[in-house]
């Protein structure tokens, strides 16, 4: 994650684009999958998984938009991790009232952490969690060596209120065609013009949100031993943003009877849209079916 830093004291205008909102696909069978996109991302990054699980496997799929995503950066950057979780929790509570059968939860990057929070709060209703590129530490191969020293400084006042970073290639994507599309948008976008954020996410990442992610991690890590629902962790060996250490850290600390790590060999961070997205979808379905079979055996 090569970064540049932008100091914006006058904010972004109302021209920032809104996303198209929640992604909901009604299934033909029992069971649902609740998908959570990443920080500064969009439900669109989960669309391939949603279509696979819905059209090929029959699950009802719900992917809510995180709080204030689609709003101007001046609004988004003031959002707390508790507000992100509340938007997920509210959507989950609504979904469980309208779906029957097991409910599985999955999230990308920070979305994976929010998935684990749902499992902690609703252990009897979340049948299993699939964590995709979970992000506890920014320690991938494309993270600059100076980040561990610079980012903590920028997360403090006054810098965190008006500093941003802008990603450079590969943008968490190994697929060259998709990387080229993202590059075209990210290169042309200014901090005041993000009208295509609904498709590609925000090209600028407020440092204030990085601070919120750190606070979420600090809160969640101490609770890992309380997680007992089945947990799957899927991560690329070449993840450019977060190393496999993130998955092994979670695996070693949760108290789930059923848990597994799946490593990918031809992807970067955004595994929901990258080269092996089909493998991700199939491994998720395999895991969900295993959990259902184990539950049936115990009955």
- CATH H level, superfamily name: Alpha/Beta hydrolase fold, catalytic domain
Distance between the termini: 47 Å
Radius of gyration from the CA trace? 18 Å
CATH architecture: 3-Layer(aba) Sandwich
Number of helices: 10
> From the helix content, strand content and strand pairing, which structural class follows?
alpha/beta
List low-pLDDT spans.
11-20
Succession of helices and strands = EEEHEHHEHEHEHHEHEHEH
The helix content is 25-40%
Describe this entry's structure for a reader:
This protein has 299 residues and is α/β, with parallel strands linked by helices. The protein has one domain: Alpha/Beta hydrolase fold, catalytic domain (Rossmann fold), CATH 3.40.50.1820. 38% of the residues lie in helices and 17% in strands. The chain has 10 helices and 10 strands. The strands form 2 sheets. The protein has a 7-stranded mixed β-sheet, with helices on both faces. A 3-stranded antiparallel β-sheet has the order 1-7-8. Helix 1 packs across helix 10 and helix 4 packs parallel to helix 8. The radius of gyration is 18 Å and the shape is globular. The N and C termini lie far apart (47 Å). About 3% of the residues have low confidence.
């Amino acid at each position: 994650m090569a970064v540049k830093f932008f100091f914006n004291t006058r904010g972004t205008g109302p021209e920032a684009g809104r996303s198209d909102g929640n992604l909901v696909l009604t299934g033909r069978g029992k069971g649902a999958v609740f998908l959570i996109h990443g920080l500064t991302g969009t439900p669109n990054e989960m669309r391939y998984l949603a279509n696979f699980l819905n059209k090929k496997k029959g699950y009802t799929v719900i992917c809510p938009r995180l709080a204030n995503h689609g709003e101007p950066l001046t609004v988004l950057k003031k959002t707390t991790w508790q507000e992100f979780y509340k938007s997920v929790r509210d959507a989950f509570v609504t979904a469980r009232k309208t779906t029957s059968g097991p409910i599985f939860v999955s999230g990308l990057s920070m979305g994976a952490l929010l998935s684990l929070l749902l499992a902690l709060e609703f252990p009897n209703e979340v049948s299993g969690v699939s964590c995709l590129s979970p992000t506890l530490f920014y320690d991938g191969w494309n993270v600059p060596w100076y980040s561990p020293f610079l980012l903590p400084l920028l997360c403090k006042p006054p810098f965190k209120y008006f500093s941003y970073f802008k990603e450079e290639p590969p943008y968490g994507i190994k697929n060259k065609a998709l990387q080229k599309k993202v590059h075209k948008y990210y290169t042309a976008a200014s901090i005041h013009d993000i009208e295509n954020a609904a498709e590609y996410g925000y090209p600028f990442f407020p440092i204030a949100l990085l601070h919120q992610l750190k606070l979420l991690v600090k809160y969640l890590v101490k609770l890992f031993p309380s997680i007992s629902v089945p947990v799957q962790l899927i991560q690329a060996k070449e993840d450019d943003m977060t190393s496999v250490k993130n998955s092994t850290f979670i695996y070693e600390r949760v108290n789930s009877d059923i848990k597994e790590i799946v490593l990918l060999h031809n992807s970067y961070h955004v595994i929901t849209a990258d080269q092996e997205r089909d493998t991700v979808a199939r491994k998720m379905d395999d895991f969900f079916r295993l959990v259902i079979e184990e539950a049936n055996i115990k009955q």
